[in-house]
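WARN no homologs supplied; continuing
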Amino acid sequence: MEFRKIIFQKSNNIATIKLNRPKKFNALNIELASDLAKALEICLGDEDIRAVIITGEGKAFCAAGDISVLKASLETDSSNMLSELIDLLNIIIINIRSMPKPVIAAINGAVVAAGMSIAAACDLRICVSSAKFRQSYTGIGFTGDGGWMLLVPLLLGFGRATELLLLDPVFDAMQALDWGFVNNVVGDDELERVSTEMAIKLAQGPTKAFAIAKENLNHAMLGLLKRQLELERSGMVKASKTPDSREGLDAFFEKRRPKFTGK
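OK structure emitted
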């Protein structure tokens, strides 16, 4: 299968999926999200693949959903594009969690909004020391999607996740490690080597046992996650119709601080 917005490679029982919109900081649009969902489906069905790495090309892992999609949805008074993009994101999240083999997020740079959701859905996360993280949804008058409201609190705790949603700080790699969002921090030039070494170790491990263990971890959470994904999709569509979200997007494109009115 040919892909336009990802690079898909398979070697030594390891599949590497690289998000490939570097000029847009690998922000999710319909094409990239569709390619990622399809690549994960290939990994799901290929028994020769025993570990998966998700990473990004350029300076970002994934800088949220493409803001231009949100803006276009508002300008046309249609939520169809936004709903379609979130539906694809939901497929991506479910595919990662349902994957009967380990999935590593090799975080090469900025992680924002939906990028955090994708990373949080993975089984293990390694990031470079220069990586920066931001929730960002509420910063432009929107709400979380891609299971953010479930997955991130499970990793960080309810209090810390609430802090991120309400105050929207940027946090760095060492904070991400200290808070438990990532498992390891490496030098910027070491990410590929370390993530590949980890993937090789996992691919040489007891794949069926890993699958059962992951299934058991998912047991109490997967049904809740599916309901949460739909709830978040509905919430994002509702938020997109508020005056504050329009102000947030205008401020983003005009590179200024938004003036929210609470409406």
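The first strand starts at residue 6 and ends at 11.
OK
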